[in-house]
Design brief:
This protein is of the alpha+beta class. It is built from 16 helices and 8 strands. It folds into 3 domains: 2-60 and 204-381, Rhomboid-like (Rhomboid-like fold); 62-177, no CATH class; 398-435, no CATH class. 31% of the residues are buried.
Amino acid sequence: MGLADRDYNRVQSAGGGRVSTGRFLLGRIRSASPRGGYSATFLIVVACCLVYFLDLLLPSRFVQSSPWIAAPAQRAAADAIAAKIKQIDQLAASAKSRGDTAAVASLLEGRSSLEVLFEERQQLIVVAEEAWEARRNRGEFVAVIEKEPGGGAMAVAREPGVSRLVDPLAVARADSVGPIRAWMQFTTAQAMWVPQKWGAEQGFQFWRFLGYGILHINLTHLLFNMLGLWVFGPIVEQAFGRLRFFALFMLSVVVGALLYFLLNVGGLAALGVTDGEFIVPGLLFNNPYLPLIGASAGVYGVILAAAWLRPNEDILLLFVFPIPLRYFALAIIGISVFTLLRNGNNAGGEAAHLGGALAGWWIAQRPHLLDDFFPFFHRFDGRRAARPTPRRAPAPSDSEIDRILDKVRAEGLASLSERERTALRNATDEHRKRDGR
């Protein structure tokens, strides 16, 4: 995507003419604030790029990426028995189709024995889960990362002082990530709280609501987000000022994470209530350790704010097709809603996009609220956002006033509606002003 050549993209020289591309880039890098300095758009782009490349260079670490699964050895044995029962059912069906009743009877007898073993294993698993929950709540376990032959890793919980040869109490998946991502990525389990069933003993890390907004998965993810910010950021920053732009971007990031969290908790609650049999469209049913990463929620907030400010501004879709900004904004919102309702690929990311877009659209209509919440902005940025002027009802016509007065004479003052009382009061005030009273 790219903006068409418009006035806000032009940096005027002292003589008022067009300037070089270098001066155009400098106009985006420098702030229009009376205090000067770098633009907020440029600073956010630099921060995201620095964090991305620094995280690649620093030594990686393992982070838990799934809930704890208690009694893995018992579960493996139960799964093996279930596979054997399924195999016997297939053999019995084949023998029945051949009319081999003796084979069918023999297979069903063996199946009955396996069913008894399967029920015993299931009971052992329930007991092990209860014991693990109690032990975890007391903190009576040691968790270590154990690498697997295929290159992955598992978080393994064991009793303190117990040999690695003993079956673990519980296991969870672990991913190798950069240390900055490990500390700042947003997950439902880490940032807030979910039921103990899902393993959220490490919640209430609130900084993740904002920190994930400067992280990126790969170079393509980074480039697309920074391109969107570079294209649309100056529209909003020139309208609201540098620090207010920072606030809009950050609030969009926070609201994006909050909507992701609420939909994920709602999805997990629905799974628990319905035992996974009913899927509610729009909720997120993903693992609560699945990370939310990227500046996309903030970028969507900036795009919607830009669309509110300049709805008819043309952008070049794929650098070729001109399209008004308001239609572009509606299109990306429609894609996000469609993906979320279908629980499609990256539904969690689209939920964050929607949250950021709603925040940007709402704030763009009420930029003065940024001054109310952050009163220091106007002191440092040199500008205050204008408050919207209240709309006054149009003055009633003389014929309307005559009608109201006739109604008062015929039915009394108590017969007037609130609108008619207001119109009469306003007309009286205007009449007194004209008479100098």
